[in-house]
Amino acid sequence: MIRVLLADDENLIRSALAQMLDLEDDIEVVAEAADGAAALKAAQATKPDVAVLDLQMPDVDGITVAERLADLVPECACMVVTSHGRPGYLKRALASGVKGFLPKTTSAATLAQVVRIVHGGGRHVDPELAAEAITAGDSPLTPRETDVLEAAAGGAPVEDIANRVHLSPGTVRNYLSSAVAKLGAANRHEAAATARRMGWI
After folding, report:
1. DSSP tag of 6
2. What is 143-198's CATH number?
3. Model pTM?
4. Which pLDDT belongs to residue 135?
5. pLDDT digits over 97-136, tens only?
6. 80 to each of 25, 26, 91, 149, 176, how far by Cα in Å?
7. Which terminus of the chain has a smaller tally of CB atoms within 10 A, N or C?
């Protein structure tokens, strides 16, 4: 029996996934969590074979949960099921040791099959998402440019961004200018939107 932990902040989605997986003869959902912190606690308590994680959850996102589970429960294979299948997220997930990456539009049969694949030590990435990630290439932004652009994404003034990322306003302006130029954007708002669409922030 493959023991599964489900983590998704949307109750309806989580319940539906649990019901679908419980219909399988060889899969048992042993724990459910509505956020990343709860997922980490549940995984330590139940020691599941596979964790099925939503990408965007309150407090701790699915990729960070997977990174932490690699240390806390190393025998647990992690997979991400998301409605945000952006190239940058996929690359970050795979770099973090995630074994499966699927869109939420996937069928119940495919989800169950991927649980079996990752439990058996294999990997599965949705073919369309994989093709998009290859086409998109890597982020051209440095880690600092990424931090500054992420802080700017909500339209905050330069002074607020500087306080948030612990840099001077002049340095923030330089990083924003560099990010805008690298992304071929008209301004920082467009640059942030592009980076978000690609999953780079």
Report:
1. E
2. 1.10.10.10
3. 0.72
4. 67
5. 999 999 888 899 999 999 999 999 999 998 888 877 776 6
6. 22, 20, 12, 25, 31
7. N
